[in-house]
Amino acid sequence: MDLTTHEDIEAPIEFVFDQITDFATFERSVMRRGGDVERLEKGDDDGLGAKWRVKFLMRGVERKIVGEVTQADKPNAMEMTLKSKSADGALRVDLVALSRARTRLNVQFEATAKSIPAKLLFQSLKFARQKTQSRFKAAVAGFAEDVEKRYRT
Hints:
Elements: E1 2-9, H1 13-20, H2 23-32, E2 36-41, E3 51-58, E4 61-73, E5 77-83, E6 87-99, E7 102-113, H3 116-127, H4 129-152
Antiparallel strand pairs: 1-7, 2-3, 3-4, 4-5, 5-6, 6-7
């Protein structure tokens, strides 16, 4: 399964990179939604090597994911791998400076199933491809909007 989208943000590339590597904010967001986050590794200043174990409920079943920042090229890109018992994934974020105060955020998510239930889940997401893509795009657009608001204040 592969999802991609991009958004233009009215903020400098350095500020946007700092926002996508503000892991404490993401950790609090997961906890507010009922998940449990345990940081395993802190990582470098740019986030490289940071690692987490996340537990959350999805469709009535507790899921466990281990995420790790595997690549960080400040301020241009970051890649994170996600591993669980039934699926693996990769999230890649690329930033392109369009001008001094405008940045393009490119986000790509790839996931592969390792179990039959995960394959069934991904198959149902593929059948609803347009809805899945629009939800992904809406989530990235919401993040871009929040970054713009934080930059203005």
